[in-house]
Amino acid sequence: MHKVTSEIYTETNNISEKLDNGNAVTKFAFKCPSYMIDPTSTGGTFKYDDDDDLDVDRDKEETLVIEHSESTELNLVGLQVWRGALLLADYVLSHPDLFKDQIILELGSGVGVTGIVASYLAKKVICTDINVGGILSLIERNFQRNRAYVRSSYNVEEVNFLDLGWSRRLEERLQEANIVLAADVIYDDKITDGFVRTLSKLLYMKKKKTVYVALEKRYVFTIADLDTTAPMYEEFLRCVEKYRMNWSVDYISIDFPRYFKYDRVQHLVLMKIQNNTKSIAYA
């Protein structure tokens, strides 16, 4: 089958090491926001400048050590690192007030980059993905590799977008979350439909949730349209329109500080989704 490779591996100078299992371990460098540097602010006191804006001074560089695949078939792209995960990680680091002491659920966690970053601020992180290619154990290994940054409790659970028949235990665990993160989970019509149905189930749980979705519009030229389109992004919007009842979908400007090294291309998108109806049990 045709294999795909993330652009991240060619646009950065991150240091990688090959493992015997065929994966690579890469050091992803990032600049620390001031609250990660100053020990007086890691306890919860964030610094602000004279204009009352969050102080995001970034002088100290650290690294996340991430095990991942360098090339995969389409159904295993979660084993790679993609730009959307780094964009969403940047957003979390840029807005600590939004994520501090929250219970965060990540859908389609992949190798765990965003979840690990969120765990520095959160009260609890629940990382989820479909268990193919050993991805759940890979997430666990990456949390262990980066335990210096993991300040919250965390769980790794299987959530399959195509199977919403959750066990009572899993549903109770997902119910806890008040923030949902998802990065680069839009790559296939069937998966996209299942992802939006999963969001719908989560957004109509009793506990109100705010969803942040990062994705990259990937353009292709189609003979049918005689035009360049972003089919998966458009399919995502169609599915949102199909399944939502009273959601608000807001586009967040991506001009917030960049901590990780990657090409923040104009086709990257960050959305904030909420359910504006009174919370009800999902049928």
From TrEMBL:
Pfam families: Methyltransf_16. InterPro entries: Methyltransf_16, METTL22, SAM-dependent_MTases_sf. GO terms for cellular component: nucleus. It comes from the Eukaryota. SUPFAM superfamilies: S-adenosyl-L-methionine-dependent methyltransferases. CDD domains: AdoMet_MTases. This is Methyltransferase-like protein 22 isoform X1. It comes from Dinoponera quadriceps (South American ant). One of its GO terms (molecular function) is protein methyltransferase activity.
